[in-house]
Amino acid sequence: MKKKLFLLASALFFVSFFISASLFADSTVEDVIKMENKAYTEHKKSTCEFQHKKHAEERDLKCGICHHDDKGEPLELKMGDDVQNCIACHNKPGEKPKGKDAPKLTPAQKLEYHAEAMHKKCKKCHKTYNKKNNTKAAPTTCKGCHPKAG
Ligand code: HEC
Ligand code: HEC
Ligand code: HEC
Ligand code: HEC
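# heme C complex -> structure
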């Protein structure tokens, strides 16, 4: 009996350890992020792979170009700081509703949709960059970021 209790206690300990680890592990970021978010129950497109390290370090983009606070003001960050995922605030999965019955949204309401916020942030810079450098290296087509059909 004692042994069983011990096993149960240690199992609980490990479970809580992993839960808290996943809650508080916000300070690490993978070099390449597969942008899968649990809020999505379905995907129309293949998941975008985002070269975080390449963007943040090799391209030397300031963290605050992409990361901002709850008022949209750029954050001053360094690697190791706690950072909220975009979906914490842009928390509606997918793109805004489309079609003739779709409600009219204000720009702020549109930004609540995760994919709208991503598209705005990612494509704007890519377009400017391509134009300035006379290239197509920064992807602006669907396939460029969602390589597989579907
Ligand atoms: C070009 C845009 C961009 C730049 C520049 C950028 N990031 Fe990010 N970062 C992102 C995106 C997008 C995500 C979220 C990806 C996802 O949905 O999982 C992210 C995620 C993170 C995360 C993980 C958050 C989590 O989900 O737990 C950390 C930590 C982070 N970034 C830190 C930084 C730091 C520090 C810098 C500057 C040195 C930086 N980032 C620069 C776009 C950027
Ligand atoms: C703490 C909450 C919060 C987080 C986390 C957050 N945002 Fe925002 N975001 C906002 C708010 C608030 C605004 C301003 C909305 C407005 O102006 O109406 C905004 C505005 C934006 C805009 C429109 C303005 C612009 O910069 O073009 C984009 C695009 C955007 N966010 C993308 C992102 C991306 C990408 C991430 C993750 C790297 C992210 N947001 C993380 C709250 C957040
Ligand atoms: C401030 C500018 C900027 C922002 C914001 C930005 N990118 Fe980029 N991105 C670039 C540049 C510059 C390139 C590379 C062009 C080249 O190779 O010459 C690039 C290239 C890419 C590529 C091609 C693979 C690679 O990394 O070389 C992908 C995919 C990509 N970006 C995805 C994203 C996504 C997803 C976001 C939004 C979360 C994003 N980018 C936001 C500047 C930006
Ligand atoms: C610069 C990169 C980039 C380009 C270009 C881009 N997307 Fe996205 N898209 C993203 C990111 C990042 C997300 C959020 C993470 C994810 O779901 O992959 C996203 C999410 C989505 C979603 C919601 C998730 C899903 O799979 O249902 C849809 C739908 C979508 N994009 C459609 C499109 C279409 C259509 C185009 C072309 C008109 C396009 N995207 C072009 C980066 C891009």
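# post-check
The helical segments are 2-24, 52-58, 107-111, 114-133, 142-145.
Residues 2-24 form the longest helix (23 residues).
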